Amino acid sequence: MIDEFYNIIGNVGTALQHLIFPMLFFFLFAYLLKRKQAVTAFRTCLPNSIFNISIMCFNLIFISLISSHLKWLYSIDIGENLSQIWASLPEWLVILSATFCGDFIGYWRHRFEHSRILWPSHAMHHSDTQMSWLTLQRFHPFNRMSTLIIDTGLLMCLGFPPYALVANNLIRHYYGYFIHADLPWNYGAWNKVFVSPVMHQWHHAAEPAAYNTNFATIFSIFDRAFGTYRVPGLCHIPLGVPYNVGGNILGQLLYPFKLSSYLKKSKAPQAKSIDT
Ligand SMILES: [Zn+2]
Ligand SMILES: [Zn+2]
C-alpha cells in the first residue's frame, strides 16, 4: 500500500517534469509569434492552465489506482494471427500503420463522445475557453479511461506489437499538444491530409456551425471522408461550451453523475461539411 502510494507520487512527479520541455517549446513559439503579448496571453490562460495541470494529476492518480487492477488485460493475446503480419514488416511501416489505424479509431471514438451518452464526460475537454497546448490534459477521468480502453484495446485486437502501441501513443500525445496550442496555423493544401492547430480550434469553437466537426487528431482525411471537415479560415470566435458544465473542477468532475447532463443534446445537431 505504501509502495503503491510512493509509485503514484513518483508518476505524478515524472509527468510534471515531462511538461517542462513542451512548456519551453510552446512559450518560445508564443514569443516568436506575439513578442511581448506572449506574456499577456500567458497570464490570460493561467487559470485554465492550472485547472488543466490539476486534472492531469488527478487523472494520473485515478488511472494508476485503476490500472493496477487491470494488468490482466495486457496478458490477453487477442490479435495473435494479425501480429504475424506486423512481425514481417519494417518497424517504421508498423508504426505508421498503428498511427493511421489509431487515428481512424480515435476519430470514431471522438465522434461517439459527442453523442448524448458520452458528451457529459467529454464536456470538460471543451470547457476550456482559453485554449493552449495544456488543454490536451483537460479530460474527465471517465474520458481518459474510455480513450485508453477503446483506442489501445482495438489496436491490440489488430495485433500491433507493444512498441507500435507506445509509438502511436507518443505521436498522438505530442501532436495533440501541437494542435491544441494557440497557433494561427493552417497547412494550405496539406490541410486535406493533416489536422492543423486552426482545424482543431474550430472543433472547440462555441458556435453551432462548428459543433460536431473536425474529430480527427492527426489525419484530416477522416473528417473529409466522413463529412465532418470544416475549416472556414482562421478561428477568431469564442471557444468553449455555451452553457454551464459544472463550473469549478469538482463541479465538472461531478457533471457526468447528474441525470440532467444526459437530457441536454450534445453541443448541437450534426453540422454539414464544408471544404475550403
Ligand atoms: Zn470533442
Ligand atoms: Zn481538443
UniProtKB/TrEMBL annotation:
<dbReference type="GO" id="GO:0016020">
    <property type="term" value="C:membrane"/>
</dbReference>
<dbReference type="GO" id="GO:0008610">
    <property type="term" value="P:lipid biosynthetic process"/>
</dbReference>
<dbReference type="GO" id="GO:0050479">
    <property type="term" value="F:glyceryl-ether monooxygenase activity"/>
</dbReference>
<feature type="transmembrane region" description="Helical">
    <location>
        <begin position="15"/>
        <end position="33"/>
    </location>
</feature>
<dbReference type="GO" id="GO:0006643">
    <property type="term" value="P:membrane lipid metabolic process"/>
</dbReference>
<keyword id="KW-0560">Oxidoreductase</keyword>
<dbReference type="InterPro" id="IPR051689">
    <property type="entry name" value="Sterol_desaturase/TMEM195"/>
</dbReference>
<protein>
    <submittedName>
        <fullName>Fatty acid hydroxylase</fullName>
    </submittedName>
</protein>
<feature type="transmembrane region" description="Helical">
    <location>
        <begin position="45"/>
        <end position="66"/>
    </location>
</feature>
<dbReference type="GO" id="GO:0005506">
    <property type="term" value="F:iron ion binding"/>
</dbReference>
<dbReference type="InterPro" id="IPR006694">
    <property type="entry name" value="Fatty_acid_hydroxylase"/>
</dbReference>
<dbReference type="Pfam" id="PF04116">
    <property type="entry name" value="FA_hydroxylase"/>
</dbReference>
<keyword id="KW-0472">Membrane</keyword>
<keyword id="KW-0443">Lipid metabolism</keyword>
<keyword id="KW-1133">Transmembrane helix</keyword>
<dbReference type="GO" id="GO:0012505">
    <property type="term" value="C:endomembrane system"/>
</dbReference>
<keyword id="KW-0812">Transmembrane</keyword>
<feature type="domain" description="Fatty acid hydroxylase">
    <location>
        <begin position="97"/>
        <end position="228"/>
    </location>
</feature>
